[in-house]
Amino acid sequence: MKLKHTHINISLFSLGCFILLLGCSTTKQLEFAKEKSNTISLGAIVKKEGALKNNVEIKGVPDLDQKIRVSVIEKEFTKASFSKYVRIFDTQKPSIEFDDTTENKPTYFEIELIDDIGYASSINNDVTSREYVKNSKKAGVVSKIVMVSKSAVSFENMTSAFLEEIENQYVVNVYNNEELLATLSFSEIVVFDYQISFFCYGKNQRNQVVIMDIVEEGKSCKRPLERKAEKLETIKKLIDY
């Protein structure tokens, strides 16, 4: 089953769409409805077009066969970060107010994939996702989101957090040891910045070309891993011959 080709130019000036995660037997599709509030899913597979950061095409989200550890960092708004936040509201008034002269400033959160190997393993086990990213030179993943929550949420007693798939939807579950403290739905947050990472390929024990890691945009894969699967496929064919 092919991934749905929904081309959008995601601009931080008008992140005006709402992602619905639809379950299916392979890779879930992303549908976009034009709303003023918008989320972009951590872990979503994208196609990056050109040098502009925001010119990406959402392809879908892979089925997760395991929990993927993420980091959650709380930061105070600065003039620069608040400027990015304000832009997504277009003509609407932001729900957060910022005064650089006050001591207690509002905060936001950065949530980032840190179990790169676990995420890569999930894609390798999802045939549709694996074949798409292997055959697309521009395929990447949303590896970090910068966001505020629409409702009150506390990470004060958090010991770990994971990206999980619950009832065909991605959520971030926050734990204190084994106790579930909170579930963060992507429909309940406002994303105002994000980071794209790309895939690194290597060969497993069966000499198969698989995804082994992800790396931030602008960085190189650690040797002997390659950014392009076709390089390893060519070597494999020569050896087999």
UniProtKB/TrEMBL annotation:
<protein>
    <recommendedName>
        <fullName>Lipoprotein</fullName>
    </recommendedName>
</protein>
